[in-house]
Structure to design on (110 residues):
């Protein structure tokens, strides 16, 4: 039995049309699951940026000190301090982790 894949809802109407076509092509055996996963990746929503105030608010809402928050994110205390002071902005995996914690809570990364 073949598991049906749920279509994502991309923000772009063009990407939505492409993804819907890919889902139908997969359902009819024209493209394989691996190719469909590639189309799925196109439809991921971009990770939002976080301001220094938002990072501080997230950390304090979790009742974590800067050192503990840095440990959770696997980064240095000086990096967290720089984010909260607005000297630096998180990017890459750190930004993805912040977003995951923001959406799903601390347990998602522990």
């Amino acid at each position: 039995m073949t598991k049906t894949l749920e279509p994502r809802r991309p923000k772009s109407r063009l990407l939505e049309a492409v993804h819907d076509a890919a889902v139908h092509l997969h359902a009819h055996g024209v493209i394989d699951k691996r190719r469909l996963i590639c189309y799925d990746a196109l439809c991921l929503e971009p990770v939002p940026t976080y301001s220094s105030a938002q990072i501080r608010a997230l950390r304090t809402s979790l009742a974590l000190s800067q050192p503990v928050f840095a440990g959770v994110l696997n980064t240095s205390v000086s990096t967290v301090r720089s984010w909260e002071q607005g000297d630096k902005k998180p990017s890459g995996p750190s930004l993805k982790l912040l977003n995951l914690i923001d959406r799903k809570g601390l347990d998602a990364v522990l």
Notes: The CA atoms of residues 25 and 31 lie 6 Å apart.
